[in-house]
Amino acid sequence: MGQAVIATLIKAGIPKDQISFTRKRSELNDEIIKAYGISARSLAELARESDLIFLAMKPQDLIAILDEIKTNVPAETLIVSLAAGKKTGVIQAALGDKNPVIRVMPNTPMVVGEGVSVISASSNVDPAELEWVRGLLAVGGLAMVIDESLQDAVTSISGSGPAYFFAFIEAMVSAGEKLGISNHDATALAIATIKGAAVMLEESGKSATTLRENVTSPKGVTAEALKVFRERGLDEMVEAAMRAARDRSLELG
């Protein structure tokens, strides 16, 4: 997600000479420098001199990084964490309860400007700063501010959601191949279908239920397919999967 954030910052008009980064494997810095034209700096330098710090890392690595920077980061520096499950209070405590913290759950389509960023803030974040960060992330797609108590539940929809659709596409392509369609054609058909359905749902103003009913003729082809989904417990399976994602997010916090 780090590169998605960099791309979003640049797209939002932040001058490249005001964007710097660091990464655990410094031998890979040249890749980022060449791709985005920004500079690499040490973690200590970034902590001391940045007005805004994005923390884009695995949640398991977050506390160690916070411990490393806590003596260098000024109290007024705004911290924006993309670490799944990690609450603003945990981050504040690790930094000595001084910094304003914004928690963001993004998803990978941010890379192509069609992402979702769900945002929550600690009580000491200035509302103007929160709106500025929301506007910044909106360049990469939908950016929504919610109460932090809902973050783990929302993660199960938008944070993990792209993987659900990728898995469904995989299943459609596999089934298509078994029905005699080439992998190339089945993939193209599945992608175009799911993309068209999403745009139709967004632009029609109709609910998913209404659109499903409109395309399902009684005793027709689609009705037979949906009957199999229903008999095999699609709704229950999706709910169980989302609860599992929510619960894991809670564990990470």
UniProtKB/TrEMBL annotation:
SUPFAM superfamilies listed in its UniProt record: 6-phosphogluconate dehydrogenase C-terminal domain-like, NAD(P)-binding Rossmann-fold domains
Span of domain Pyrroline-5-carboxylate reductase catalytic N-terminal: 1-85
A Pfam family that the UniProt record links to this protein: P5CR_dimer
GO biological process: L-proline biosynthetic process
Limits of the Pyrroline-5-carboxylate reductase dimerisation domain: 148-252
Keywords for the protein's UniProt record, in alphabetical order: NADP, Oxidoreductase
Example GO molecular function: pyrroline-5-carboxylate reductase activity
InterPro entries: 6-PGluconate_DH-like_C_sf, NAD(P)-bd_dom_sf, P5C_Rdtase_cat_N, P5CR_dimer, Pyrroline-COOH_reductase
UniProt entry tagged with the keyword Oxidoreductase: yes
HAMAP family for this protein: P5C_reductase (MF_01925)
Similarity annotation: Belongs to the pyrroline-5-carboxylate reductase family.
Protein name: Unannotated protein
The organism of origin for this protein: freshwater metagenome
Highest classification ranks of the organism: unclassified sequences, metagenomes, ecological metagenomes
